[in-house]
Amino acid sequence: MIHPMLIDTATLDQNLGREGLVIIDVRGKAAYAFGGHIPGAVNATWHEFSDPDAAAKGLLDPDTSRLEQKIQSLGINPDSDVVIYSNPFDNWGDEGRMFWMLQYLGHARLKILDGGWVKWTAEHRKYEHGVVTPKPGSFKAAVNSDVIIEKDELKKIVKRPHPETVIADARSLEEYAGKEISGIPRSGHVPGAASVPWNAFLNPDATVKDLEKIRAGLDDKGLHPSHEVVCYCTGGVRSAWLYVVLKLAGYQKVRNYPGSWWEWSRDFAAPVEKDAKLLHKIVGSEEGKPS
User: Fold this and answer.
1) Would you call 129 exposed, middle or buried from its count of C-beta atoms within 10 A (0-12, 13-18, 19+)?
2) How far is residue 73's CA from residue 69's CA, in Å, rounded to a whole number?
3) How far apart are CA 82 and CA 99, in angstroms?
4) pLDDT tens digit string along 67-112?
5) pLDDT in tens, 123-149
6) Does CATH place domain 6-143 in 3.40.250.10?
7) What is the rounded distance in angstroms from the CA atom of residue 30 to the CA atom of residue 35?
8) What is the second-level CATH architecture of the domain 148-288?
9) How many angstroms separate the CA atoms of 148 and 220, rounded?
10) Average pLDDT score, the chain
11) Neighbour order of strands in the sheet with 42-43
12) Where are the domain boundaries for CATH 3.40.250.10 in the chain?
């Protein structure tokens, strides 16, 4: 039986056109409009909901009313059933970011299309081109602060023993170890964080792996359901997908850090760790050696 947070392609196909159903395609605008999309789907990318004045691209727009209006423009009402999809092999976990953001803003009736556009097209299901412009909805934001963490709180956690909280770095192992990335002031990871790469949870058909296997893998990395888990990446997108995976696996206390490394690395009062030996082992270059 499929998880309540997911919907399979056959079920979505059967419900196309149903009143109250809103499908959000979170791929880029060109892929959506010209490459084809699920019939009736509207388009929105995570960038549209970012703080326009922040250097850290992942931060949400602090103007909740503006976020509310943008979500209303997608045709979402308080009782809408929302299905989110992307191409899971050609993004950064964007469907997770939209899911997490809508949960943060108080919408509860959310599902992710298991397998996304990859599985939908592999099964030769119907699609359409062009842009869908729906009638604006009446969604009202009710912020759920339980699913978000901001930089200052994370700094306080890092500076004290925190056996009840695990910090999970959703970036690649190379980034975690300290690979230099253009546009990022400092490399490395949040001290004490576990490396939990975001892209390890899908089958070849882009569906989510068996949840028992996912739980076992998380347990091996020191993430237990009794913990609070704080997820971060570069801009809160890959970490939002990890947030979804953890929720699927039954973790109750999970928060996403939207500013993530874009913000953390710019604050030189925020501590950073590197693992030079690990980086050298991965890339096999002098880059991993201390300077």
Assistant:
1) exposed
2) 6
3) 9
4) 999 999 999 999 999 999 999 999 999 999 999 999 999 999 999 9
5) 999 999 999 999 999 999 999 999 999
6) yes
7) 7
8) 3-Layer(aba) Sandwich (3.40)
9) 25
10) 96
11) 6-7, 110-113, 81-85, 21-25, 42-43
12) 6-143, 148-288
